[in-house]
């Protein structure tokens, strides 16, 4: 397997905090811009495991395995389209810049760099605000808010649809900012938002007046009434203070959606609100009301304000119960190990996509999507979860045979990860099956 770290450790960590200089992040051509997000994967997991270790030591329940795996699964889902096509935000920006630019600022000017920093951050603020206050955009963005936990893994819970609604907010910059500078700030703006998804940093002192911090973003993820539609910032909290959407953290936050999904199924998490909105649109009478379903807030109904009534939001207080099906320790270890192996496979897929055929990439993506579905059903204690898992293990071995047959690699040259997969599947399946049926038998006796 290729080296996990594509950049020096201190460089990768600095990128997560936007601690870079204009000189090191200004490029003369788009193709010279590093894939910041792809290169940051290992650093995400270093910090996640560090926070997990702290949570385990404190025994404070900040992490739950099913919720964390669902969050990371959503992150994996969100990257699937990029294996085939370029990001729509980049393609649209470059097209507008090429055909409609008024003038082009110099790419190697610090003034250009700082102007783009502010422009991208304000563009993100308005996109983010619309994503909460316009229902068809919320259908994508709600994925990120669906976790009832708030930790670094939650930051990875992203929507596969969101990029198709966000790109338009950055197009005004294309009239004068070079694309390569725009790409840098788009990536770094998103990376900065990773580390603020933590409960362990209480306050940053005077920086709270300028930067988006863990405290401000905890409010944004809350479903307490005082948290609703607040703190849309990406990097700078000044936009919320300027446009009247700022709220300080003043009581313990209850995290998640106002109406929890109560599932770890990644497909439901991704698409449930889009399906609900479409059905609501079909059932609503009158063109004006149909447009209200799409373009007003998710809480809007006929006769109510554009974003709905705050009184309709359940008035929750911490501590608050969470959706949390219970599993045995052996069961959790099994799921964690298998999910980790799948995650490694996806990292390899992203790394080697240039040398793989489109057909093989599609097969691997279908396998990944089905596997993530299996994990969701396992953690939901779905009735047929064990049969989904049997199928997944069998398909993984079949996929290995197909890759050998089409000479992606020779049987004698199988990557070590594939050998490990085969041993793992064959040895652990029997354990999983036995544990599952033992628990099912005990539940039947208890009933």
Automatic annotation (TrEMBL):
Alkylglycerol monooxygenase C-terminal domain residues: 332-400
Annotated signal sequence range: none
EC number(s) recorded for this UniProt protein: 1.14.16.5
Topological category with respect to the lipid bilayer: Multi-pass membrane protein
One Pfam family linked to the record: FA_hydroxylase
Protein's name according to its UniProt entry: Alkylglycerol monooxygenase
Cellular component annotations (GO), alphabetically ordered: endoplasmic reticulum membrane
Lineage: Eukaryota, Metazoa, Spiralia, Lophotrochozoa, Mollusca
Predominant cellular place of this UniProt entry's protein: endoplasmic reticulum
GO biological process assignments: lipid biosynthetic process; membrane lipid metabolic process
Chemical reaction(s) catalysed: 1-O-(1,2-saturated-alkyl)-sn-glycerol + (6R)-L-erythro-5,6,7,8-tetrahydrobiopterin + O2 = a 1-(1-hydroxyalkyl)-sn-glycerol + (6R)-L-erythro-6,7-dihydrobiopterin + H2O
UniProt keyword annotations, A-Z: Endoplasmic reticulum, Iron, Lipid metabolism, Membrane, Oxidoreductase, Transmembrane, Transmembrane helix
Family as reported in the entry's similarity comment: Belongs to the sterol desaturase family. TMEM195 subfamily.
Chain ranges of the Fatty acid hydroxylase domain: 114-245
Family annotation (PANTHER family): ALKYLGLYCEROL MONOOXYGENASE, STEROL DESATURASE-RELATED PROTEIN
């Amino acid at each position: 397997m290729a080296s996990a770290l594509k950049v020096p450790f201190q460089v990768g960590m600095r990128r997560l905090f936007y601690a870079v200089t204009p000189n090191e992040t200004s490029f003369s051509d788009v193709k010279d811009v590093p894939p910041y997000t792809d290169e940051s994967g290992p650093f995400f997991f270093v910090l996640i495991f560090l926070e997990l270790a702290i949570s385990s030591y404190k025994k404070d329940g900040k992490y739950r395995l099913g919720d964390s795996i669902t969050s990371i699964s959503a992150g994996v889902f969100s990257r699937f389209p990029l294996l085939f096509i370029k990001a729509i935000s980049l393609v649209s920006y470059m097209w507008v810049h090429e055909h409609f630019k008024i003038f082009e600022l110099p790419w190697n000017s610090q003034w250009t760099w700082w102007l783009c920093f502010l422009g991208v951050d304000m563009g993100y603020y308005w996109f983010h605000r619309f994503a909460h206050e316009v229902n068809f955009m919320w259908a994508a963005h709600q994925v990120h808010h669906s976790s009832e936990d708030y930790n670094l893994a939650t930051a990875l819970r992203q929507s596969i649809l969101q990029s198709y609604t966000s790109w338009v907010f950055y197009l005004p910059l294309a009239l004068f900012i070079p694309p390569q500078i725009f790409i840098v700030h788009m990536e770094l703006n998103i990376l900065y938002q990773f580390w603020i998804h933590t409960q362990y940093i209480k306050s940053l002192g005077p920086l709270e007046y300028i930067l988006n911090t863990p405290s401000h973003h905890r409010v944004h993820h809350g479903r307490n009434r005082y948290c609703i539609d607040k703190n849309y910032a990406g990097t700078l909290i000044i936009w919320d203070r300027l446009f009247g959407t700022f709220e300080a953290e003043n009581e313990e936050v209850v995290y998640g959606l106002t109406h929890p999904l109560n599932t770890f199924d990644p497909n439901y998490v991704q698409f449930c609100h889009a399906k609900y909105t479409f059905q609501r649109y079909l059932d609503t009478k009158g063109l004006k009301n149909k447009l209200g379903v799409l373009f007003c807030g998710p809480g809007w109904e006929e006769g109510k304000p554009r974003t709905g009534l705050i009184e309709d939001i359940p008035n929750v207080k911490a501590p608050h119960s969470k959706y949390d099906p219970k599993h045995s320790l052996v069961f959790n270890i099994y799921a964690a190990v298998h999910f980790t192996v799948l995650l490694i496979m996806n990292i390899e897929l992203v790394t080697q996509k240039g040398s793989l055929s489109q057909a093989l990439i599609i097969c691997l993506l279908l396998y990944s999507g089905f596997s993530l579905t299996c994990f969701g059903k396992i953690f939901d204690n779905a009735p047929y979860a064990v049969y989904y898992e049997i199928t997944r293990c069998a398909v993984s071995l079949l996929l290995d045979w197909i890759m050998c047959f089409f000479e992606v690699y020779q049987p004698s040259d199988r990557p070590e990860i594939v050998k490990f997969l085969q041993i793992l599947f064959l040895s652990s399946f029997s354990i999983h099956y036995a544990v599952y049926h033992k628990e099912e038998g005990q539940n039947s006796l208890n009933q």
